[in-house]
Amino acid sequence: MTKEAVQKVVENYIEGTYTADTEMLKKVFHPSAIMTGYMGPDLMIATPTPFIEDVGSQPAMKDSGAPYKAEITHLVVTGNIAEATVYETGFFGDGTLEDHFHLIKDTEGQWKIVSKCFTTL
Length: 121
Hints:
Elements: H1 2-19, H2 22-28, E1 29-39, E2 42-46, H3 49-57, H4 61-64, E3 69-78, E4 81-91, E5 95-105, E6 111-120
Parallel strand pairs: 1-6
Antiparallel strand pairs: 1-2, 3-4, 4-5, 5-6
Helix pairs in contact: 1-2
């Protein structure tokens, strides 16, 4: 059940990104989460808020005709921590990204993303 619970959080991240569901995206991240990575040559270090706002300000990828696909390529759970890798193609058109997530089971027993490290490929 634990691995399935972690997988569901990552799948909700993917679905929220695809459908521009900002409420779903807010629920998968821990309040103290951080996002770091590269969009092309630009280094970004922030909370998930700018990402969520950006996704919410654009037409949902499901409505844009973009061939967005995302696949969980790695998932490991160790006790109350987990890591997952997601490979995304068609991100707002032609973007290809690899995301590395760290998750933690919070004090209420819910899995949340605490960090996302990403890079465009």
